[in-house]
Amino acid sequence: MKRRNFIKAASLTGAGVLLSRCIGATDPIISEEPYNEQPIIKNKPIIISTWNHGIAANKAAWEKLESGGSALDAVEAGVRVTESDASNRSVGLGGLPDRDGNVTLDACIMNHESECGAVAYLQNIENPISVARKVMEDTPHVMLVGNGAFEFAIEKGFKKKELLTPEAKETWLKWKKSEDLKKPEINSENHDTIGLLAMDKDGNLSGACTTSGWAYKLPGRVGDSPIIGAGLFVDNEIGAACATGMGEAVIRIAGSHTVVELMRYGHSPEEACKLAVERIQKKHKDITGLQVGFIAMNKNGEVGSYSVYAGFNYALKDNANDKMVDAQYDLEW
Ligand code: ASP
Fold first, then answer.
1. 224 CB under 6 A from ligand 1?
2. Nearest to 304 by CA among 242, 253, 217
3. How far is the CA of 239 from the centre of ligand 1 (A)?
4. CA neighbours within 13 Å on the CB side: how many for 77?
5. Buried b / exposed e across 77-90, counting CB within 10 Å, b at 16+?
6. Contact 114, 142 (CB under 8 A)
7. Does the C-beta of 191 come closer than 6 Å to ligand 1?
8. What is the three-class DSSP state of 240?
9. How far is the CA of 119 from the centre of ligand 1 (A)?
10. Is the CB of 211 under 6 A from ligand 1?
11. pLDDT digits over 17-59, tens only?
């Protein structure tokens, strides 16, 4: 039996999971052989994305796929809807600002060829995901931040725009009066990145992740969402994953990369998300209120999710479904 098949077969049992983990501990490279087996994908194209705003994003992504677009086109088109939705307080236009009232955006994108682009701490540009795609396609770099990212966007034809809407400003001003400025809290009202993963008709995977980040964050703070491997990771041989929730915790375990690697070792998408969530819990002495959720899709078109606390959900779209799915979780609030 080929070594990779042995690992896959072994991992079908609990003992096998342990065995594959042990093998992983001493010899993490199990994909040296080319992945020439074609997985049977029953349901492509398929799209999943985080939270309720995922339904509208999936619709736009689906239209791209239906009209012959690639998974990359789809993920970009999908999350642009959320970025441009002024009523959304956690992504793009209308997102809640940092402590000082500045809306600063983080985003990244990755395709089936492991090409990726990202922007962080970007201000006054409505669709950071499209700037991230330009970074990927038009520069030798992966990430541009701050003013450099803004200047690059302007050079590429993006328009400068005020992103702090009157409603978001009012919410921020209320917070300023009532909260301890030094301790921004992450809770269900002040976060909700959109992460969107798609598999196109050719079976290729891409992902996009975009956010205004932790509301009232310290100026200069960047979370997991624009960091390839933390907020998003795609390996077209294995699968894709993205994260939402407290970015600092996701970065500490290189969350999305961890989920994809766990799938590489034979875990289902949901198991992989669960193991990553458990690792986050293990690495934090106090998990109180620390919400993180992952969604994942493997090369077979299977999907899954898991979060630390109850309440996380994701939007699923394929030929048979267009619905919200509640994530499995470990803790009640
Ligand atoms: N992960 C995002 C961040 O830490 C926030 C979120 O998803 O709610 O910036």
1. yes
2. 242
3. 22
4. 18
5. bbbbbbbebeebbb
6. no
7. yes
8. strand
9. 15
10. yes
11. 443 333 333 333 344 444 444 445 567 899 999 999 999 999 9
**How many angstroms separate the alpha carbon of residue 255 from the centre of ligand 1?**
12
Among 104, 171, 193, 244, the one annotated catalytic? 193
* 193 annotated active-site: yes
Element at 150 (helix H, strand E): helix 146-155
**Block residue for tokens 């950071």:** 128
Per DSSP, 318 falls in state S
Query: How far is 130 from 43, CA to CA, in rounded Å?
Result: 28
Phi, psi of 31 (to 5 degrees): -115, 30
Nearest CA, atom 9, ligand 1:
213
Of 170, 119, 187, nearest in space to 147 by CA: 119
Domains of the chain: 44-328 (3.60.20.30)
Stated pTM of the model:
0.88
Using one digit for the tens of pLDDT, what is the confidence trace for 104-128? 999 999 999 999 999 999 999 999 9
Regarding the beta carbon of 192 and ligand 1, being less than 6 Å apart is answered yes
248 Cα to the center of ligand 1, angstroms: 8
| Site of tokens 């087996």 | 37
Residue matched to tokens 């970074």:
135
Sheet harboring 46-50: ordered strands across? Answer: 143-145, 116-122, 105-110, 205-211, 194-199, 46-50, 313-317, 322-326
Give the C-alpha separation, 211 to 163, whole Å.
13
Q: Ligand 1, from 104, 105, 244, 292: best to mutate by most atoms within 8 Å of Cβ?
A: 244
